[in-house]
Amino acid sequence: MSEAVESLNFIEHIVEEDLKNGYSTQDLRFRFPPEPNGYLHIGHASSICLNFGLGLRYNAPVNLRFDDTNPAKEEQEYVDAIKKDVEWLGFKWDTERYASDYFQQLYDWAIELIKQGKAYVDEQSSEVMAEQKGTPTQPGTNSPFRDRSIEENLAGFQKMKDGEFDEGTHVLRAKIDMSSSNMLMRDPIMYRVLHKVHHRTNTDWCIYPMYDWTHGESDYIEQVSHSFCTLEFAMHRELYDWFLDQVIDVKKLRPKQREFARRNLSHTVVSKRKLLQLVEQNVVTGWDDPRMSTLSGLRRRGYTPESIRNFVETIGIAKRDNLIDVSLLEFHVREHLNKISPRVMGVLDPVKVVITNYPEGEVEWLDTENNPEDSSAGTRQIPFSREIYIEKDDFKEEANRKFFRLKLGGEVRLKSGYIIKAESCTKDTDGNITEIQCTYDPKSKSGSGTEESLRKVKGTLHWVSVAHALQAEVRLYDRLFTDESPDTHKDKDFMEFINPDSLKVITGFLEPSLSGAKPGDRVQFQRLGYFCVDPDSTTEKLVFNKTVGLRDTWAKLQSK
Hints:
This protein is α/β, with parallel strands linked by helices and about 550 residues long. A hairpin with a 3-residue loop joins strand 27 (about 520-525) and strand 28 (about 530-535). Mean pLDDT is about 95; it is low at about 1-5, about 450-455 and about 555-560.
């Protein structure tokens, strides 16, 4: 076996086997089938990359199909957001489809099943039907309506369609096997009554098909060759195939359902219901809050589509569910941003430094590189003056030899600037340092080429000129949950693990080159981390989101 074949994941092996056993590459068609009842999250990224990746690998079409069978929860807003997310990840679909496109065909097939004695109208309550289902070890019992005549069922189904019944009073069930070991085969519901406005069909329908009836038939209509879904649908495969058996034309391609493992991410939840709960209870500001695991939230935070695709490729496709540490995702984000992000200077917790021997009122423009990882990125100029800001943590009155930042009597280099020496400091009545007085060495400017410029000091600090600094709102994000698996505790609600420090809003002082920064721009604040301009940002007020730190500090905190 060739090295290329050996490196395939098990899903690709399935496709390869089918190609060996009679499939043509012309037969291949894949699909990504989201339900438009919420925003896509990081878990969906694996499915998107899998299906569209197969399309690219085999030069096969991929449909984007919205399984829009529940108007009670689905909205056009979600449709638009899903399309935006798929495009943002870098993929293009062949055709845009909707399960609602097939409502008439599905209805016609349901009529045929009734005529064949394979479907019946049931008017019991959902509670009674659930009791009749039995248990995994005990067979179910037949509904008293199971043996209604074909004429009664056709008439009842017509009344369902015409809106003559209230919601929850009548359903159409497939007549399969109430003693099946697979409880999904015990006369599953095919249609229910819903008097809701559908985002595409408006009020044309009062009955809506269930997912299991819709999904496989939609694959068949579209001639999808391989229907890949997550492991929770493995038990549904038998029903998927039974429904296909009722409508299949042997001259047409039969879709094949196969399952892969869901990839859960630590310190997050990826249930749409729970994500919606976070939004509705105002724990977050919306579906695109940068703390959310949604793709729109990750995009707003500054994650790149390349980093997410690289992450998905790294974790691969598996047959067992497992928990992936979010730090692996952050690693890929950090790795990509390191290559593409301009280096700029910003001070987020400032203390003023006055360089006492620098001329008052003088401004000097210093050259500094934009990105040492990209030789084509060039340089820019930053202003230097008598008064600058540095970070409070970068100064101590007294410190040991391992403290390589600024201390009284000690020297540091200012990034792209001069060496300064701390001479004294001023404190307020509470003992807080409010100002540091320094002197500078005029012959030590970076890149000056003088002998003195070769003088080495161990510490280099970032800084900004006070007179030129831009004020910006800076949103510092941390993980939304303190527990790595917040939704797996049987005795606790996932909301109990909300991190109270997941967002801190501060005022930062940035170099003036950022005055033209636009929403979506990504930068590295030197020594602090990677940041992204938020959509809330305006020409009057800059807003930056922290994307990720320069290193995984969370892991260090957890190990202490």
